[in-house]
Amino acid sequence: MTAQPPRSAFARPGSSTGLGADAGLVSGEAVELEVRAARLGSRVLALLIDIAAQFVIAVLLLIVAGILIDAFAGTGLPDEALLTALQTVGVVLLLVGYPVSWETLSQGRTPGKLAVGLRVVRDDGGRVGFRQSLTRSLVGVAVEWPGLVLPLLTWAVSVTVMMTDPRGRRLGDLAAGTMVIHDRSPAGSGYVPAMVPPLTGWTRSLDLTRLDDGLALAVRQLLSRSGTLTESARLRLARSLWAEVAAVTSPPPPPGMADWAYLAAVHAERHTRARQRLARTRSVSTTLWPELVPAAAEATAPGLTWPVRPAAPPPSPPQAPVAPVLAATPQGGADR
Hints:
Helices cover 53% and strands 4% of the residues. It has 336 residues and is mainly alpha-helical. The chain folds into 2 domains: 40-182, no CATH class; 190-335, no CATH class. A two-stranded antiparallel sheet has the order 1-2. Strands 3-4 form a two-stranded antiparallel sheet. A hairpin with a 5-residue loop joins strand 1 and strand 2 (32-33).
């Protein structure tokens, strides 16, 4: 049972695909948010826009400095040491102060990121703070851009890290505990497959400890988007995921179960258990510290700026009733 669904159709957290990559963020309702992690191309474009903005600011500062120097030329005040100090301060403000101030005051956006639709967030999805922004900026100036330490070597290392990291993070992100996401990406549909009533008793005995988040996300994506797939592609993907899910869950499904019914029942049970765990955790927190839960909800709300919008009803499954499906053995069922 080693079948794998095509990564181009349903990418999982940790994959290196571009458009389908998921940032792996989870909402308070235990629904994974389909927020795309920014990759090398979009981040380079945002950097080029920021470099252009920094160049314009540098030109304006030079013009102002030239006017001031001319004004004090006869007084002897602007000596060589003072000019060198002012130049150093200006470079630091442009390379470090520019991104830090923008990201801190604009919720993780610089003008370049705002134009491309990117945002810097913490690894847990919260709003980036001054400490994280300063750390990633200092590391970036030192070893990424402009790269004060062995520029060519550190550039190559930085690009390699971004291309191989599951979330597209650079060295500064790894040091600061941040990541860059597509702020304008469509939010996750929030669709959760409904439980198939005849399978309720069986799903309660399921061992789901080995069913990871990536596989569960692939199942939900298939069930929510099945209406956009051809019949052959839908059957092929369903059988692939059926094999993967069956390999990591027990007990085995009842004989003759349709692929879609099995996947929907397993995902619905996993979601139910996640909600129950979350409810128990909140209950304990409320008991020990009643003021903690409202305060935490208000504190995390600004960081989660990608709301989970209710999705349109998923496409209806095959029209055959569930009971006859469970009784009949599908083609190839003996091989399972």
